[in-house]
């Protein structure tokens, strides 16, 4: 009888151990999923922007097919497609980021101008700006994009319709001479990948845009978007490795994460008038200072994702925002001097 009881107890213990092991195993993997789910989501959300881009591409192919059948050559066949895409992106901007544009009146309703902007990890603010200007000013902003974009599947039609080209100085001048708006980010892909939430400009002594403006005799309009680096960010480790890979291959292999619903507000600065007495180097420096001034007036440094989300709720008490935002109007105060030293120090580190 003792043997039967012992056998029963052993059997019960084995069954209990098996059930407990299964339960713990399930709970362990549930805990792992709970722990890493937010991290996975932050890497998945940037992909939503690419999904929107490919939805845009599909719509453009639809319009091309539709107008080819109808043989509609009486007007710009892409006007309807551009309007539809502008509404699509503008809706995304307003709903997801509470997007605003300040200083839209600084963009001329007619005539050429060169728009110079800060490049985020994903230039989503450029898509929003392009949409807003197309809807409210009925003007298309021509753009300059990196050559690797043309190699992405489907992107050729998107770049063709939205007038985005790799660009050279002669082609940019020609576009401006034809009376178009042209947008350039001197920092380009390098600034997109290796910029940080400290918002330093990484132009690496590029002055080509200044040569374009002087040759075409057009004004330069500085543009910056508040909280842009809080919406999407580059993964910071191991940055030295990614920098070396980029210098060797020019491929944008730095992982991105984000998709945070922070407040985005594009500030269009006062135009810098054409001045024949300026050299390209001096004009480039003047433009850089104008954008840095917009950054210092409208952006907290370093940027904060949480506070960027709080910025969306203007009806909340502003105590936190007033203490953290750097809205500086006095150009001679000590804080501006410290921030300028901060910009210079970070630039030297990146340009070595």
From TrEMBL:
Gene Ontology MF: a single term: acyltransferase activity
Keyword terms of this UniProt record: Membrane, Transmembrane, Transmembrane helix
Domain Phospholipid/glycerol acyltransferase: start-end pairs: 103-224
Transmembrane segments: 12-34, 40-65
Top-level division of the source organism's lineage: Eukaryota
Keyword Transmembrane helix listed: yes
GO CC entries: membrane
Alphabetized InterPro entries for the sequence: Plipid/glycerol_acylTrfase
Protein name, entry field: Phospholipid/glycerol acyltransferase domain-containing protein
Biological source species: Varroa destructor
């Amino acid at each position: 009888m003792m043997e039967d009881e012992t056998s029963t107890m052993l059997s019960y213990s084995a069954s209990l151990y098996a059930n407990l092991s299964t339960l713990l195993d399930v709970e362990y993997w549930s805990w792992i999923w709970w722990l890493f789910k937010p991290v996975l989501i932050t890497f998945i959300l940037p992909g939503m922007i690419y999904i929107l881009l490919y939805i845009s591409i599909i719509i453009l192919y639809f319009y091309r097919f539709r107008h080819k059948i109808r043989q509609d050559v009486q007007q710009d066949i892409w006007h309807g497609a551009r309007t539809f895409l502008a509404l699509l992106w503008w809706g995304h901007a307003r709903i997801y980021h509470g997007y605003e544009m300040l200083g839209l009146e600084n963009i001329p309703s007619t005539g050429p101008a060169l728009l110079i902007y800060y490049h985020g990890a994903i230039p989503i603010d450029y898509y929003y700006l392009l949409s807003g200007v197309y809807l409210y000013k009925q003007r298309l902003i021509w753009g300059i994009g990196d050559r690797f974009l043309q190699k992405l599947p489907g992107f050729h039609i998107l770049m063709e319709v939205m007038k985005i080209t790799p660009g050279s100085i002669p082609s940019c001048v020609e576009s401006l001479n034809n009376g178009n708006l042209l947008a350039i980010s001197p920092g380009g892909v390098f600034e997109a990948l290796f910029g940080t939430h400290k918002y330093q400009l990484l132009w690496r002594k590029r002055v080509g845009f200044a040569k374009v403006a002087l040759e075409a005799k057009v004004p330069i309009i500085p543009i910056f978007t508040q909280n842009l680096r809080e919406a999407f960010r580059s993964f910071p480790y191991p940055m030295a490795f990614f920098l070396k890979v980029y210098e060797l291959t020019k491929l944008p292999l730095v992982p991105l994460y984000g998709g945070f619903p922070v407040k985005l507000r594009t500030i269009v600065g006062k135009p810098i008038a054409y001045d024949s007495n300026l050299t390209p180097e001096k004009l480039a420096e003047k433009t850089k200072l104008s954008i840095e001034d917009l950054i210092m007036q409208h952006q907290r440094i370093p940027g904060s994702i949480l506070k960027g989300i709080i910025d969306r709720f203007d009806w909340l008490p502003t105590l936190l925002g007033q203490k953290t935002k750097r809205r500086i109007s006095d150009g001679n105060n000590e804080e501006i001097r410290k921030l300028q030293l901060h910009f210079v120090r970070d630039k030297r580190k990146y340009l070595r």
